[in-house]
Amino acid sequence: MNNYKLLTPGPLTTTEAVKNEMLKDRCTWDDEYKQVTQMIRKQLVEIAQVNEKDYTAVLMQGSGSFVVESVLTTAIGERDKVLIITNGAYGERIVDMANALQLQHAVYSVPYNEQPSSTEVQAILEGDPTITHVAIVHCETTTGILNPIHEVGKIVERFGKTYIVDAMSSFGGVPMDLSKQPIDFLISSANKCIQGVPGFGFVIAKIEALEKCAGNARSVALDLYKQWEVMRVDGKWRFTSPTHVVAAFAKAVEELSEEGGVEARYSRYAKNNWILRTRLASLGFNAYITEELQSPIITTFLYPNEGFSFEHFYQEMKKAGFVIYPGKLTEVDTFRIGNIGDIHKEDMIVLCEIIENYMAVKNNEN
Ligand SMILES: Cc1ncc(COP(=O)(O)O)c(C=O)c1O
After folding, report:
1. Which of 261, 147, 242, 142 is nearest to 193 (CA)?
2. Ligand 1 neighbours (beta carbon < 6 A)
3. Beta partners for 335?
4. Would you place residue 203 in the very low, low, confident or very high pLDDT band (cuts 50, 70, 90)?
5. Ligand 1 test: best mutation among 6, 60, 65, most atoms within 8 Å of CB?
6. What's the CA gap between 278 and 267, in Å, rounded?
7. Other beta carbons less than 10 A from residue 265's beta carbon
8. In the predicted model, is pLDDT for residue 366 greater than 90?
């Protein structure tokens, strides 16, 4: 298999150094390995711009969805009720989880290309005092829209509710100062903007909120509180930990710092995204999300014309070394191109040139 550049929202293109870390075997009981876990936990709290007195990072095996589910089952007790805000598939997945876990919940949905309104959140909280928690997705990777977690957070804080933010595809790539946001549980995973490989996710939790969660979980393996209880002692994971992935992640965190931190990474991603959007717009590919609401993570493009075949386009891009992503919308034909990972402006320029050539050939055929 070729070494493609993945223009997808994770797993994504990682550096050689990150991949190389996975060539060694490590023992989960060994102090050296446990220290790696502790170091990562500390660094994640730093990246979130908070301190270890008030916040802790808990790592959890599995893909991002496992970690979202672990937060829901651990943070939301039987007598609680969560307001779930949705404008895409990942918000809807939280609703699916709430149903499966039989959590009391209310849903506030808006169209996929619109942001939820904090005024509406306020009205819902005023109308239903039984709501105890609010859950929202930061970057809805379904479309690439960025949701106003800060504005919604102010309302959530004013009403004294617990705030859960799925920042899966944005944490590490979009500046997010938790010291200025009332987030109680922030969720992300190893294979997104920190640029590690898949295998675990993490939660940056306000200690005060996590402490209240003992005994809530209706799952053995996904009990975030118990995971924290064990992990906080010396970095030992409660059940088998993904050792290779953890080692790769430690390298990825080091590389984030070498790049200049989250601000520098954000600026690289934003540049990638700008090149992609402006050059594709001139070829007739319109973005589904307006520029003001667009994240620098992934862009959803509408098909440029009726004759456009995504399958053919995809195969041609793949032959040229780039793997792109199908759309996730049902009512319009779209595809997606991500620009996170070890992807630089030179890669975006090459990709745009390939797409320009592709479209020139297609236009000549018609
Ligand atoms: C915002 C968001 N939430 C949740 C998930 C689910 O993560 P996973 O597919 O790793 O289970 C994703 C995956 O891309 C995501 O982007």
Report:
1. 261
2. 9-10, 63-65, 68, 90, 137, 141, 166, 168-169, 189
3. 301, 326
4. very high
5. 65
6. 16
7. 22
8. no
1 pLDDT more than 80: no
Q: Are 121 and 107 in contact (CB under 8 A)?
A: no
Distance CA 352, CA 358 (A): 10
The CA-based dihedral angle spanning residues 78, 224, 168, 244, taken in that order and rounded to the nearest 10 degrees: -150
Ligand 1 centroid to residue 141 C-alpha, Å: 8
- The β-bridge relationship of strands 139-140 and 145-146 is antiparallel
- Pairing state between β 55-61 and 200-206: antiparallel
What residues pair up with 60 in beta bridges, in sequence order?
Answer: 201
Distance (angstroms) between ligand 1 centre and the Cα of 316 equals 27
221's CB contacts (< 8 A; 6+ apart) are 61, 239
Distance 304 CA to ligand 1 centre (A): 27
Q: For residue 64, give both structure tokens.
A: 């991002």
Number of continuous H segments (helices) and E segments (strands) in the chain: 12, 14
The whole-angstrom separation of Cα 283 and Cα 299 is: 15
Structure tokens at 179: 């010291």
Query: DSSP 3-state assignment of 19?
Result: helix
- Among residues of the chain, what percentage have pLDDT more than 90? 96
Residue type, 93: R
Which residues lie closer than 8 Å to 137 by C-beta, 6 or more apart?
Answer: 85, 86, 87, 88, 90, 91, 94, 147, 165, 166, 168
Provide the β-strand partners of residue 325. 336
Q: Which of 62, 21, 26, 38 is nearest to 249 (CA)?
A: 21
Residue 138 tokens, joined: 């930061």
For residue 175, cis peptide bond before it (omega within 30 degrees of 0): no
